[in-house]
From TrEMBL, chain A:
Segments forming domain ABC3 transporter permease C-terminal: 242-365, 691-809
Record bears the keyword Lipid metabolism: no
Lineage: Bacteria, Pseudomonadati, Pseudomonadota, Alphaproteobacteria, Hyphomicrobiales
Name this protein carries in UniProt: ABC transporter permease
Keywords, alphabetical: Cell membrane, Membrane, Transmembrane, Transmembrane helix
Membrane topology type: Multi-pass membrane protein
Top-level taxon of the source organism: Bacteria
Automatic annotation (TrEMBL), chain B:
Function: Involved in beta-(1-->2)glucan export. Transmembrane domains (TMD) form a pore in the inner membrane and the ATP-binding domain (NBD) is responsible for energy generation.
One annotated Gene Ontology cellular component of this protein: plasma membrane
Keyword Cell membrane in record: yes
Family matches, as InterPro entries: AAA+_ATPase, ABC_transporter-like_ATP-bd, ABC_transporter-like_CS, ABC_transpr_LolD-like, MacB-like_ATP-bd, P-loop_NTPase
Domain ABC transporter: 2-217
Domain of life of the native organism: Bacteria
Organism, as annotated: Bradyrhizobium neotropicale
Protein name listed in UniProt: ABC transporter ATP-binding protein
Coiled-coil blocks: none
Record bears the keyword Nucleotide-binding: yes
Similarity annotation: Belongs to the ABC transporter superfamily. Macrolide exporter (TC 3.A.1.122) family.
Length: 820, 217
């Protein structure tokens, strides 16, 4: 043991003399672990939130009975079923406005609530009494209490004026949900004796068949392992994971480069250790132990960094998930022990993978092997051929996935294969470019410039591959986001037809507002809308009521339409379908969709397809009057107004005063548009942050490669210095070389990035969201990215070049003195 | 103390076997100092590597005291080098990241046989007292070789093997280094086998053997 410790001390002493190399190794491991763990922390936080949402007193993980039209039904059915031996428990769900927030209100019946309902928090006996007995309790998550700026025990009023029972924190609850006794919910939602669904517990014995108890009034919905939210957000989390993985690999590039050089530099030391009597097994074991210890230390630091990255990104991610999918993610990070273990594990595994080739080389090294630093450079040509062949194979996989892949994973597979193939083929491309330069070179220094760049290529290729990947992802994602941004804003301009939008608290208030508006001369048109929820072919679908007004005919953008679509919409037997729903149902213009309605099936001819960016739900747009005929329960609380621009502020102020409406309930078009764009920008803030992170890590990879190469380059540079090239000139040549290869890499990253953007827009977006964007190229953005890449390369090259410029002649002379 | 019988070793060069040692016989008594000379490529270093267990012979026997070196496993050969053999190379092979003091004590520590008094005496005799905190790159060639000799003798080995230890040194320094080595070898009583090209240095040892055509003459 003591002997092993001495060997370990000797191996570690190398790092004391090569501090920069040690820092490089740690930076690589920390960078690899940090972003990967950060992203995993965010994903874990989101999944916990989905679980909490799914488990909120019977989510989709519980079998339930619902009305076929998804409407509420009489609680008499609940009584009938209980008597027939069905272990059911009623839930009433609706939305209420509280302190300006729209909240989901759940009414439950705690006595019959099945114990095995998902992982729902159970109410203890004491809590049960307090929950049911007047004044009762409103259960909320801690985050909700903070959002509402209310204290526990207060009983705030909702927008109708009715008071909630006192607030009580139940930590397991998801944010933005209020849970009350069902009797309270029926009163607050003004739905006496009504129930939204019945949760089914484990039956004792065999209850009577459902049909014989309630006929066709209710249908059974089986639990699903994955929530709708999880399905919808899969692509988002996959996207985050892809960024984390990219950064992880770039970090491993750094580790591989640092460990490779360290092992080569230590080969003579290993030989001496063996000559002094340390056995091969001991030296190899200690090498592995050293690596694992370093990986553990770096992994821990990386995890702490990952925690801070996750904490910094979480608000943006939460905003993205809320904006894109309506998912509520708590803004405060909570992590489980498995996250820490997984992070440490990935750090150790990554270090071992990155160091594998060097370790194997050291293990197989015969004790008398002559140290041949950078001998692998001699085998560069063979490697280039092998790597290019591997790249072609990976491109073939990409083509195969593109042609035959159907899933979102296949879409990401195309992206991954394209990028891996491009990274593998990069050194061969650069070799061709540099060789062409060498052949055209005139003069000895120029010739040396190109030849030495070629020789340096193998040492820099990993870092350049990292730069290529980071730049390509930046180009791809930036192009996609910019395309999305422009398309979204154009689409928003068309969609927001009215000048003022009102959201009444209930139908009674909506009628009062309409009547009041009729006497207002400045109001040119009152456009009533409405929305109803239903299911078509098992898919949740929103029915969107469109008023028949010329403004919509002018502005509402349709991607595809039958002749006279708007005219055909008016009678109520036709609909426009959103792009994502048309893809999901495989329905196009000319097809017929059957919608289950309270009065029986409603057949709708599809006469148009419209873009509905960012909406996770499929949507059918129908005439609003026809919607209300088919779904009489549809709240008619949404009102749009056409008003001359200069009259808008006065009208809004009057509405707010007359009906006590807050800013969320009445807004002008500009405000709604600004809010939508704000949400959009927030949605992609996390993407920008991850872009910057990956580019930063690639910059570090380049810096560390240049630093580690700097020392081994002295034998190449010293002869030039000896024949009369000054140190500053040598430094300038070195800088030019780094910038040249970085520029070539950046130029190659541009087409690759555009292909990535095309994949994101044409494959990943379509598979993830169901809509496709038009493809645009933004030349200024590309130029900006090339400039950023060159700046990163310049910063990375400055330190080693400055060292060279300041290097003392004695250090250069040593090359010839054979004392190095 | 060291007895080599009919030792053979060949290598493969461009696919063809090249016989380097063809039945070498050599005996060395305890405390005896022997110089081994021969043309370049005659197999001098190979013979030293085989004795030290750094490489394996094709056939023949190497017996160091009671141990048959050719029969040892890798771990056994490592133990032999650690405890009973000191090695000195032309290129010094010091550990660049350790100070002179740590380099001197290194092998003794690995062997678990660090003797502070002997270590102090070695430092004094080698004249390294003022250089202990320095690193190898801060030393001259002669100083580096003195550290290497100190490291090899720190365990008081039975046999000191030196592969052209003065090859990188000027004549005066080479003489000094050899004189020091002879003194220390006499002090420890170990056997000393030195490979050298210099007949001048070879003449300063007790016996001089030559390796020619794969055999000792």
């Amino acid at each position: 043991m003591r002997r092993a410790l001495w060997v370990l001390a000797v191996l570690l002493s190398h790092w004391r003399r090569h501090k920069m190399q040690f820092a490089t190794l740690l930076i690589g491991l920390i960078a690899a672990t940090a972003l990967w763990s950060g992203v995993q922390a965010i994903n874990q936080q989101a999944r916990n939130a989905y679980d909490r949402a799914a488990a909120t007193f019977g989510g989709v993980r519980t079998a339930m009975l619902v009305a076929p039209n998804a409407a509420t039904f009489s609680q008499d059915l609940f009584v009938k079923l209980r008597r027939a031996g069905w272990p059911v428990s009623p839930v009433l769900e609706g939305r209420v406005q509280l302190n300006g927030h729209s909240m989901r209100l759940l009414g439950i019946e705690p006595v019959t609530l099945p114990a095995d309902v998902g992982n729902a928090p159970r109410l203890g006996a004491a809590d049960l009494t307090r929950f049911v007995a007047p004044p009762g309790q409103t259960l909320v998550a801690q985050e909700t209490l903070i959002d509402l700026q209310e204290a526990e025990g207060t009983a705030p009023p909702i927008s109708s004026g009715a008071k909630l029972p006192p607030l009580h924190v139940l930590p397991q609850l998801v944010p933005d949900v209020l849970v009350v006794d069902i009797g309270v919910a029926q009163r607050l939602l003004n739905k006496p004796g009504q129930v939204s669904r019945l949760l089914i517990g484990k039956p004792n014995g065999r209850p009577a068949p459902l049909q014989s108890v309630v006929g066709d009034q209710l249908q059974r919905v089986e639990p699903t392992a994955e929530t709708e939210l999880e399905r919808l957000t899969d692509s988002f989390h996959l996207n985050l994971t892809a960024f984390g993985l990219l950064s992880f690999f770039v970090g491993l590039f750094i580790v591989n480069s640092a460990v490779g050089l360290a092992f080569e530099q230590r080969l003579p030391m290993l030989r001496t250790l063996r000559a002094c009597g340390a056995s091969a097994r001991m030296v190899n074991t200690v090498l592995v132990v050293e690596l694992v210890v370093l990986a553990l230390i770096a992994g821990l630091i990386g995890l702490v960094c990952g925690y801070f990255i996750a904490a910094a990104l979480l608000p943006d991610v939460a905003a993205s998930l809320r904006g894109l999918y309506g998912a509520q993610i708590p803004g405060q990070l909570t992590l489980h022990a498995e996250w820490w273990f997984a992070g440490i594990g990935i750090s150790v595994a990554g270090a071992v993978v990155a160091a594998a080739t060097s370790l194997i080389k050291a293990i197989r090294m015969p004790v008398l092997a002559t140290a041949q630093p950078r001998a692998w450079q001699q085998a560069q040509h063979r490697w280039l051929i092998l790597q290019s062949a591997a790249a072609c194979a990976v491109f073939a996989v990409a083509l195969f996935l593109l042609r035959y892949g159907e899933s979102l994973i296949a879409g990401f597979g195309v992206l991954a294969a394209l990028m891996l193939g491009a990274a593998l083929i990069l050194p061969a491309f650069l070799e061709i470019i540099l060789l062409a330069g060498q052949r055209r070179a005139r003069g000895p220094v120029a010739l040396w410039f190109w030849a030495d760049s070629r020789q340096q290529l193998s040492g820099l290729s990993l870092a350049l591959m990292a730069l290529l990947l980071a730049l390509a992802v930046n180009v791809g994602v930036s192009t996609m986001v910019e395309t999305f941004s422009r398309t979204f804003i154009g689409w928003l301009n068309g969609r927001l037809a009215a000048d003022v939008y009102i959201s009444a608290s209930d139908n009674a208030q909506a009628i009062a507002i309409r009547n009041w508006l009729k006497d207002r001369g400045e109001v040119q048109a009152i456009l009533s809308g409405g929305r109803a929820e239903t299911q078509v072919q098992g898919q949740p679908v929103e029915l969107f009521g469109l008023p028949d007004h010329a403004l919509y005919r002018e502005l509402w953008p349709l991607l595809e339409a039958a002749p006279r679509p708007w005219t055909r919409l008016v009678p109520g037997n036709a609909a426009f379908i959103s792009e994502q729903l048309s893809r999901r149902l495989n329905v196009g213009v000319g097809d017929v969709v059957e919608v289950p309605a309270p009065g029986g099936p409603w057949e709708l001819d599809i006469v148009g397809i419209y873009a509905d960016y960012g909406n996770p739900k499929g949507q059918l747009a129908v005439n609003v009057a026809a919607l209300i005929r088919q779904f009489p329960q549809t709240p008619q609380t949404r009102i749009g107004l056409i008003v001359p621009r200069e009259k808008i502020p006065g009208l809004i102020a009057a509405l707010q005063k007359q009906f006590s409406l807050d800013e969320r309930s009445v807004a002008d078009q500009a405000t709604v548009k600004a809010e939508s764009i704000r949400i959009f920008n927030r949605t992609f803030a996390v993407t920008s942050a991850l872009n910057a992170f990956t580019l930063g890590v690639a910059g570090i990879a380049l810096l560390t490669s240049l630093l580690t190469l700097a020392n081994s380059r002295l034998p190449q540079l010293a002869p030039l210095w000896a024949i009369g090239i000054t140190r500053p000139r040598l430094a300038a040549i070195e800088l030019t070389k780094t910038l040249s290869v970085s520029l070539f890499t950046a130029l190659l990253a541009l087409p690759l990035g555009l292909v990535v953007a095309w994949c994101l827009i044409a494959i990943v977006n379509v598979k993830a969201f169901g809509w496709r964007l038009p493809f645009h190229v933004f030349p200024l953005q590309l130029i900006e990215l090339v400039a950023v890449a060159l700046l990163a390369a310049l910063l990375a090259a400055l330190l080693p070049v400055a060292r060279l410029a300041r290097m003392q002649p004695t250090d250069l002379v040593k090359v010839f003195a054979n004392e190095r | 103390m060291l007895s080599i019988k009919n030792l053979s070793k060949s290598f493969s060069s461009a696919g063809e076997p090249v016989s380097v040692l063809r039945g070498v016989d050599l005996d060395l008594r305890a405390g005896e100092r022997v110089a081994l000379t021969g043309e370049s490529g005659s197999g001098k270093s190979t013979l030293l590597h085989l004795i030290a267990g750094l490489d394996a012979a094709d056939s023949g026997s190497i017996r160091l005291e009671e141990t048959e070196v050719t029969a040892l496993s890798d771990a056994g050969r490592a133990s032999l080098r650690r405890n009973r053999i000191g090695l000195v190379f032309q290129q010094f092979n010091l550990i660049p990241s350790l100070s002179v003091e740590d380099n001197l004590a290194f092998q003794a520590r690995i062997a678990g046989r660090h003797d502070a008094a002997w270590s102090k005496e070695l430092i004094e005799r080698l004249g390294l007292g003022s250089l202990l905190r320095r690193y190898p790159e801060q030393l001259s060639g002669g100083q580096q070789q003195r550290v290497a000799i100190g490291r090899a003798l720190a365990t008081k080995p039975s046999l000191l093997l030196a592969d052209e230890p003065t090859g990188n040194l000027d004549e005066a320094t080479a003489d000094d280094v050899l004189a020091l080595t002879r003194d220390l070898v006499a002090r420890t009583g170990c056997g000393f086998l030195m490979v050298t090209h210099s007949l001048h240095l070879a003449a300063k040892l007790d016996r001089h053997v030559t390796l020619h055509a794969g055999r000792i003459t």
